[in-house]
Amino acid sequence: MPISDDKTTREAKLAEALRTNLRKRKAAARGSSGGDVDPATAAAQAAPKPYNVVRSLLGITHRDGGRVDLTVELSAPFPNPDGAGWAVAVRLVGDGGQFDTEHGKAAFGRDGLAAMRKAIDLAQVALDIAGATHDLRWPDDERPYDLSAPI
Q1: Which end of the chain has less Cβ packing within 10 Å, N or C?
Q2: Among 4-8, 67-71, 140-144, which is the least confidently predicted range?
Q3: pTM for the complete prediction?
Q4: What is the rounded CA–CA span in Å between residue 80 and residue 31?
Q5: 70-100 burial, b if ≥16 CB within 10 A, otherwise e?
Q6: How far is Cα 11 from Cα 6, in angstroms, rounded to an integer?
Q7: Average pLDDT score over residue span 81-95
Q8: For 3, how many CA atoms within 13 A lie in the half-sphere containing its CB?
Q9: For residue 107, how many other CB atoms are within 10 A of its CB?
Q10: How confident is the model over 31-67, as pLDDT tens digits?
């Protein structure tokens, strides 16, 4: 089947692929739904402090144009307090969302490197969610932040 050269069709396919990618990332961030205790939130309470700042952005709210500083923070890898493997906590400070808590949420892996890789994916989910309510920009020159770029 030939590939369409129609720009509108290509843009629609790209937009659908981005929406699908975002849905998959959100589903991965949800984890299990058994009970009131979220294992990712509970494990993050054991994370070593201070967290490391890995990305600083400017968020301009879609609702009223207010400006907030957004900071993505990751903890150092630590042993999973509730089971086998390791964990890394992720926080997104400034947006008031589910990752903007004292401890954030943890990502898990069989070792520290695997947990760090999953935490980077989780940080991308946090930014995707923040992008729904904020226009994300680089703080220095206010260029738009590309959500498809890896952290």
Answers
A1: N
A2: 4-8
A3: 0.73
A4: 15
A5: bbbbbbebbebeeeeebbbbbbbbbbeebbb
A6: 9
A7: 93
A8: 4
A9: 29
A10: 544 455 788 999 999 999 999 999 999 999 988 999 9
The string of DSSP codes covering 83-147 is SSSEEEEEEEETS-STT-SSS-EEEEESSHHHHHHHHHHHHHHHHHHHHHHEEEE-TTT-PBP-T
Number of residues written out for the chain: 151
Task: For tokens 């952005």, name the residue.
Answer: 57
* Per-residue 3-state assignment (H helix, E strand, C coil) for 19-60: HHHHHHHHHHHHCCCCCCCCHHHHHHCCCCCCCEEEEEEEEE
Amino acid occupying residue 126: A
